[in-house]
């Protein structure tokens, strides 16, 4: 297993969770990492991404100000802190790694595209009850 997501669960609205994704891929510290989610009956959607050092991050409008992506390159792990959760945040959350190393240390709109990511974790379910 190259990407292992964990931390999902059932939480009440306005609650918090922290998702983790442990990676065992080469050059983790030089790869853009992202989180996506897929709700029942819906397409997979972008949530957040982070540059190799963590200096640059990008969020979807629906989670901006509530979710925070971070990474610890020493632990080969990326995190997603979910705060002020809403029932519409209910989904399977997937972590993903870019196909190749990126030395720009910047993330932009193209990094919202799931096709930019060549490695995917198995997903962790987040259920928010009202």
Sum up the structure in keywords:
globular, 11 strands, seven-stranded mixed beta sheet, 0% helix, 130 residues, four-stranded antiparallel beta sheet, mainly beta
Précis, in short:
Helix content is 0%, strand content 46%.
Walkthrough of the structure:
There is one protein chain. This protein has 130 residues and is mostly beta strands. It is 0% helix and 46% strand. Strands 2, 4, 5, 6, 9, 10 and 11 form a seven-stranded mixed beta sheet that branches. It has a four-stranded antiparallel beta sheet with strand order 1-3-8-7, with no helix packed on it. The N and C termini lie far apart (34 Å).
What is the CA–CA distance across the termini?
Answer: 34 Å
Describe the main β-sheet briefly: 7 strands, mixed
Shape field: globular
Total helical segments: 0
The overall pLDDT, averaged over residues, is 96
Helix and strand composition category: mainly beta
């Amino acid at each position: 297993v190259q990407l292992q997501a964990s931390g999902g669960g059932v939480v009440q609205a306005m609650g918090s969770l922290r998702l983790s994704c442990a990676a065992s891929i080469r050059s983790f510290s030089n790869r853009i990492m992202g989180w996506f989610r897929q709700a029942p009956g819906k397409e997979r959607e972008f949530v957040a991404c982070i540059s190799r050092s963590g200096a640059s991050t990008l969020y979807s409008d629906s989670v901006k100000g509530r979710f925070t992506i971070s990474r610890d390159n020493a632990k080969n792990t990326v995190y997603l802190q979910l705060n002020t959760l809403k029932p519409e945040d209910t989904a399977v959350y997937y972590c993903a790694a870019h196909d190749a190393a990126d030395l720009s240390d910047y993330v932009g709109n193209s990094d919202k595209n799931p096709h930019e990511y060549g490695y995917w974790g198995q997903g962790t379910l987040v259920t928010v009850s009202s």
